[in-house]
Amino acid sequence: MSQKHQPKHKNKKHITTKNTGSIELKGKLDLTRSGMGYIVIDGSKDKDILVRQQDLGVALDGDIVRVKVIKQSASGRREGRVLEVVERKRTEFIGRLSVREHFAFFIAASDKPMPDIYIPKNKIKNTPDNSKVIVRLTEWENNKKKPVGEVVSVVSPEDENDFAMKGLIAENGFTIEFPKEVMKEAEALNDKIDDKEIAKRKDFRNTLTFTIDPVDAKDFDDAISIKKLDHDWYEIGVHIADVSHYVKPDTELDKEAYSRATSVYLPDRVVPMLPEHISNVLCSLRPDEDKLTFSAVFIINKKGKIKEHWIGKTAIHSDKRFTYEDVQQTIETKEGFYKDEILLLNEIAQKLRSERFSNGAINFSSQEVRFKLDEKGKPIGIEIKESKASHQLIEELMLLANRYVATYAAGIKINDKSIPFPYRIHDQPDEAKLGNFIPFAKKYGYHFDLSTPEGIAKSFNEMLEKAQGKPEQHVLEQLGIRTMAKAIYTSENIGHYGLGFENYCHFTSPIRRYPDVMVHRIIEDCLHNHPTADKKLDEKCKHCSDKERAAMDTERAANKYKQVEYMQQFLGEEFEALITGIAEFGFWAETIEQKCEGLVSVQQLNYYDDFKLIESDYMLVGMHSGRRFQMGDTVRIKVVAANLDKRQLDYEWVLKSDEAKKNEKKSGDTKTKRKSKVGQKKEK
Q1: Which residues, in sequence order, are CB contacts of 234 under 8 Å at separation 6+?
Q2: Is the pLDDT assigned to residue 10 strictly greater than 80?
Q3: pTM value?
Q4: Four-residue CA torsion sign, 130, 560, 575, 594
Q5: Cβ–Cβ contacts within 10 Å for residue 440, how many?
Q6: I want to staple 223 with a disulfide (CB 3.0 to 4.6 A). Which of 132, 229, 258, 285 is the partner?
Q7: Is the four-CA dihedral 427, 430, 435, 441 of positive or negative sign?
Q8: What's the pLDDT at 12?
Q9: Are 311 and 201 a contacting pair, CB within 8 Å?
């Protein structure tokens, strides 16, 4: 994110202690394998604060802590002591249990040092000695030497796959089970809707309404209604589950939802933000059930022109549950349930999509890899999911609702100042990365207009359109995406560059994202004419952004695990692959059929030649042969190793048969020359 457009968070990070003059700061603990800690202060240009093992207190790797600077060397290196753990990165850990007569100790399976956790006898759950377990940290005060915990679950040998997924979840700071008090609150919620509550809302129960979701979805948090009006105008409602009606501020449910901040989607499971009774029952917009919703309703024509809109609380009754495959078939065959309505919605969505790209949104294509799993969660096949018209239908209507809700919020003032609001923002491309990318794109004949942000976006779209189907398409898409900033939540509204929107927020998925819950509450306050300013909003936004990144890391790691697990069956086999990354130590290649990425080491390549990295061209070049390996090239590889513990695939580059003999001679000549040079050096 460029300095010019970086949101300026106003939360204080520096606290000066008046009595001693020493400095206290808040930051994240990065613990090394040796036990030495470094406190990373967000946004600070100063060096990290060193914390020795005896000064860590009760802090663990990844925790947000308050630290006191106790010493500063002449070189500027600061040393500190942890005063308090502000926020734990994780409270659940995986490892082994050492059972004694009246208690047990838990030894974590971690490459970062951490003390053994003491488990009281009544928290062992009759677990046998040396069992693999997940343990929850329940108590650890500064004046106590040992942390205290409880056994959450035991992992049997046949459930190693399950154990691995749970390990990734815990490693990234997410908890699998909900605390008892949270479950108690969730179960106590009434699933019957009071007529008095419906009377307060706009009633859409007699308007045609349906949901469109993945085939395996259980939490339906959005629905679409459609009604024909006069003179070619239509009323289209985007109805979102009213989670905030059930999850009230400062309840145990709310605290837990905020702590998690997001659901985590792994290949074989979902780690939900909310208990199942809420996500899959109370708030899921299931067919043939009355539901409470928060809606954005548009009066719109076939050309996508919006005459008026309305935002408010509603009640709906879904008439039909569609899968994306159902809707896609109707779009393609023009047959099926509610075909006229679906075809109309598709026509409007495509108009909105076209207008969005013409207004500066960047059209990066995307593919989603999904694993077919057996009953134990082992991958037995891979599916490639592409964005089709049915997906775009929902996507465009959700984007429309999010944009109009954010625009409404942007117009609300308190004391002539904009109301604090959790916008979803996306900055302009990273200047340094863009500077490297543009000369590379130019080599393929693509030129960029850098005069304005709009010019850059237009150049990206022109490049992506012209590169369709050409050999360089993949590499340009991949490198283009890498120039982009990361989208985050913040009250500093700089717009969403990638979508081309001046105002944008997340309103449409409150079952699985806490920022959407925050948006619902603020909008409801505004609609009742008593908007309030949340002084901790930026802190909450940062927390949600951090948890979103942690969820993405978990999902990537889980997908990589499944890739390695799947490719184990192909050891020694050869595949066509695409080069997806280049480094000094080798290149990454993704198999075209399975979409599984592995590393080809430069050590293996150096058997044929001496390869050097040409960073500006994203390529490795042989110093003698001139052979090139460049991002986007197609190569043949052999699967030589699949390490589940490291989640790592190792490939070898395979010479094509017509080149093998020719290369053998070249390789032999090169080796002879090298030996000759070595001999000459020895003589000298």
Answers
A1: 226, 227, 228, 299, 300, 301, 302, 344, 348
A2: no
A3: 0.81
A4: positive
A5: 18
A6: 285
A7: negative
A8: 39
A9: no
Hunting for tokens 């290196």 — which residue is that? Answer: 77
Q: Which residues contact 575 (CB under 8 A, 6 or more apart)?
A: 591, 592, 593, 594, 636, 637, 638, 639
Of the pLDDT bands very low, low, confident and very high (cuts 50, 70, 90), residue 669 is low
- Checking if the pLDDT of 648 tops 60, the result is yes
Do residues 403 and 503 lie in contact, with contact meaning Cβ atoms separated by under 8 Å?
yes
Under 8 Å CB-to-CB from 279, ≥6 apart: which residues?
218, 219, 263, 272, 273, 511, 512
- CB-based burial label for 652 (10 Å; 0-12, 13-18, 19+): middle
- Indicate the DSSP class of residue 371: E
| Distance separating the N- and C-terminal Cα atoms of the chain | 55
User: Residue 280, Cβ neighbours under 10 Å: how many?
Assistant: 18
Same fold: 3-87 with 92-155: yes
Q: What is the mean pLDDT of residues 547-558?
A: 95
Phi-psi region of 35 (alpha: psi -120 to 50; beta: other; left: phi over 0): left
Contact status, residue 208 vs residue 297, Cβ threshold 8 Å: no
Whole-number Å distance between alpha carbons of 300 and 232 = 9
Where do we find the tokens 């700061």? 25
The vertex-580 CA angle with 579 and 586, nearest 5°, equals: 70
Give me the residue label for tokens 């009544």. Answer: 122
Residue corresponding to tokens 């302009």: 428
Q: Tell me the two tokens of residue 189.
A: 């919620």
Residue position matching structure tokens 């340094």:
432
- The CATH number of the structural domain formed by 92-155 is 2.40.50.700
135 within 8 A of 152, measured Cβ to Cβ: yes
Please list the residues that pair with 31 across neighbouring strands.
37
Distances, alpha carbon 669 to alpha carbons 657, 675, 683, in Å: 19, 10, 21
Is residue 541 within 8 A of residue 490, CB to CB? The reply is yes
Domain borders along the chain are 3-87, 92-155, 184-393, 411-547, 571-678
Q: Residue 74 in 3-state DSSP?
A: coil
Nearest to 258 by CA among 513, 509, 87, 62: 513
C-beta separation of 291 from 315 below 8 A: yes
**For residues 321 and 213, is the Cβ–Cβ distance under 8 A?**
yes
Q: Which residue bears the tokens 């004046």?
A: 143
Query: Are 553 and 619 contacting, i.e. CB atoms less than 8 angstroms apart?
Result: no
Residue 233 confidence (pLDDT): 96
Categorise residue 173: left if φ over 0, alpha if ψ from -120 to 50, beta otherwise.
left
**Cα angle value 218/221/226 (rounded, 5°):** 115
Topology of 571-678 in CATH? Answer: OB fold (Dihydrolipoamide Acetyltransferase, E2P) (2.40.50)
For residue 509, what are its two tokens? 């998925």
Q: Which CATH architecture has domain 3-87?
A: Beta Barrel (2.40)
Give the single-character DSSP code of 135.
Answer: E
- Partnered with residue 600 across adjacent β-strands are 587, 651
